[in-house]
Amino acid sequence: MKQVSQTKKQMSSGSRRRKILPGVFVFVSLLLMVLPLEGPVSSVKAVLSYVFIPQIRAAHETVEYAKGVSDTVQELLDTHRENERLKEQLRQMQLQNEQAREIFKENARLNTALTLQAPASWNGVWAKTAYREPSQWNSVVVDKGTASGVQERSAVIAQQGGQPVLAGVVVEVTENTAKVLLLRDEDFSAVVYADPSGEEGLLTGSGAALPKMKYLPLLSTVKEGETVYTSSASSIFPAGILVGKIAEIERTDGINSSLTARVEPAVTAAAIQELFILTHREETK
Amino acid sequence: MHSALKLFLFFLVATVLHWALMAVSGGWGMSLNFMLVFAIAVCAFVKPEYGYPTAFLCGLFLDFFGVKLFGHHALIFTLCATLVYALESRLDFDSVVPQMVCVCILETFAALANLLLLKLFAGFSAWSGLFPFVGGIVVSTLVAPGVFWAVRHAFAYKRTY
Q: In this model, does residue A253 exceed pLDDT 50?
C-alpha cells in the first residue's frame, strides 16, 4: 500500500514536471523575445558565446576539413577517371601504332613489289647483287645464272626512281651466278642516242671518270643536259632505256673527225641492288 | 550525470552536423533545420527532464546566430518538444514512417512559426521562396531516420515511460 502511494507520488511529480518544464522554457523564451536585444539579451548572448563560439569554430573547422576531404576525394576521383581515360587512349594509341607499323610494313612491301615489277614488254629475271668488290665499282656478281635463263651479253637493267635505267651487261655466267659489267667499265659499250637532238653515239665506260659518248658528228647539235637513251641500233640492249644525261661535250681543235660527250649515268650505286636481266634478247629486240 | 554528459556530447556533434549540412544545403538554396530533427529525436527517446532543456538549448543555438530576434527558436523548439511528448503515447517512434511524418509536420510548423514570429516581433519577412522552404523540410524528413536511429541506440534504455 505504501509502495503504491510512493509510485503514485513519483508519477504525479513526473507529470507535474512534464507540465512545468515546457511552461518554464516557453516563459523564458518569450521573455528573451520581448526583451530589447541590446540589454539583457546581449548579456545572455555573451554568456552563450562562451559555450557556442568554440563549438561553432570547431564545427566550422570540421566542415572546412570535410570540404577539403571532399575536394581531395573529388580530385582523386577525377584523377582516377582521367587515368582510366588516358589508359584507354594509350591502349587505342598502341593499337593504332601496331596498325600503323603493319601498314608501314605493308607499304614497304608493296613499294618493293612495285619497284621490282618488270617492264611488261621485257622477259627476264630479277637478280640480287650477291657480291661486289668494295674497291671496284665496275662489276658485280648477281645470284642468277644459266639455271634462270641468264646468258652472256644479256642486258642488265636497274630501277632508279621507278624508271628502268641501263646498268650493264652480263659478261660471265655460271649455273647460279652471273658477272655483270657495269657501264662505267672501260670494256662496256652500247649504242645510244641523245634526246631531243637525236644524235647517236657509242657509249663506253671510262673507269672513275664519266662514261663517254663517242663518235658524235662534228656538226652535231647535241647539247649538255640532253637525255641519253639506248638506241635501236644496239644488238644487246632494247631501245629507249634511260642511260643518263650529257654532262659535258668535249670540243677539241685537233684532227678529230667527231665529238665526244661525257654522260652522267642515271644509275646510282644504290640502285645496283636488284637488277633485271633480260633473258630473251631476240624477242625483246 | 553520465547521460547528461553524453547528451551534451551528442548536442555538440549535432551542431557540427547542422553547420555542415547548412553549408551543403545552402549551396542548393535550401534552409535545412538539422537541430530541430535532433531535438525531436531526443524528445522521442529521452525523458522530459533532459528533452526539454535539450530542445531549448538547440533553439538557443539557432537564436545565437540571429540578429533580428532572440528566443523565438527556443520557443518553437520548446513547443515542438511539447508536441512530441504529447504524441509520444500515440506514435511508435521506433518505426521509420512515424519518425518521418512527425519530423515533416514539426519542421513545417517550426518554419511557419519562425516566419510568423519574425514578422510579429521584428517586422521582418524571412520568406525566401518555396523551394528553400519545402526543400529544407524534405531533406530534414529524409535524414530523420538516421538521427532517430543514433539517438535511440544511445539513449533509449533511459526511457521510463
A: yes
Which among A33, A52, A63 has the least Cβ separation from residue B72? A33
Q: Which of A33, A41, A55, A69 to mutate to test the interface with B (most CBs of B within 10 A)?
A: A33
Higher pLDDT among residues A239 and B58, named by residue:
B58
Tell me the domain boundaries of chain A.
Answer: 124-284
Nearest residue of B to residue A59, measured between CA atoms: B16
pLDDT tens figures, B15-45: 888 877 777 776 676 777 889 999 999 999 8
Altogether, the residues listed in chain A come to a count of 285
Q: Taking CB atoms and an 8 Å limit, are A29 and B72 in contact across chains? A: yes
Assign A285 a pLDDT band (cuts: 50, 70, 90).
Answer: very low
C-alpha cell at A199: 644524235
Q: Please tell me the CATH code under which domain A124-284 is placed.
A: 2.40.10.350
The x, y and z cell numbers of residue A25, run together, are 522554457
Chain A partners within 8 Å of B35 (Cβ): none
Q: Please tell me the predicted confidence (pLDDT) of residue A246.
A: 92
**What is d(CA A215, CA A250) in angstroms, rounded to the nearest whole number?**
11
- A94-101: average pLDDT: 86
Residue of A nearest to B8 (CA): A51
Look over chain A and give the mean of its residue pLDDT values, rounded to a whole number. Answer: 80
- Specify the higher pLDDT residue, A113 or A172: A172
Task: Flag if B53 and A25 touch (Cβ within 8 Å).
Answer: yes
Contact A33 B53 (CB under 8 A): no
What nine digits make up the cell of A119? Answer: 617492264
Three-state secondary structure along chain A? CHHHHHHHHHHHHHHHHHHHHHHHHHHHHHHHHHCCCCCHHHHHHHHHHHHHHHHHHHHHHHHHHHHHHHHHHHHHHHHHHHHHHHHHHHHHHHHHHHHHHHHHHHHHHHHHHHHCCCCCCCCEEEEEEEEECCCCCCEEEECCCHHHCCCCCCEEEEEECCEEEEEEEEEEECCCCEEEEECCCCCCEEEEEEECCCCEEEEEEECCEEEEEEEEECCCCCCCCCEEEECCCCCCCCCCCEEEEEEEEECCCCCCCEEEEEEEECCCHHHCCEEEEECCHHHHC
* Residue spans per domain, chain B: 2-158
pTM metric for this prediction? 0.50
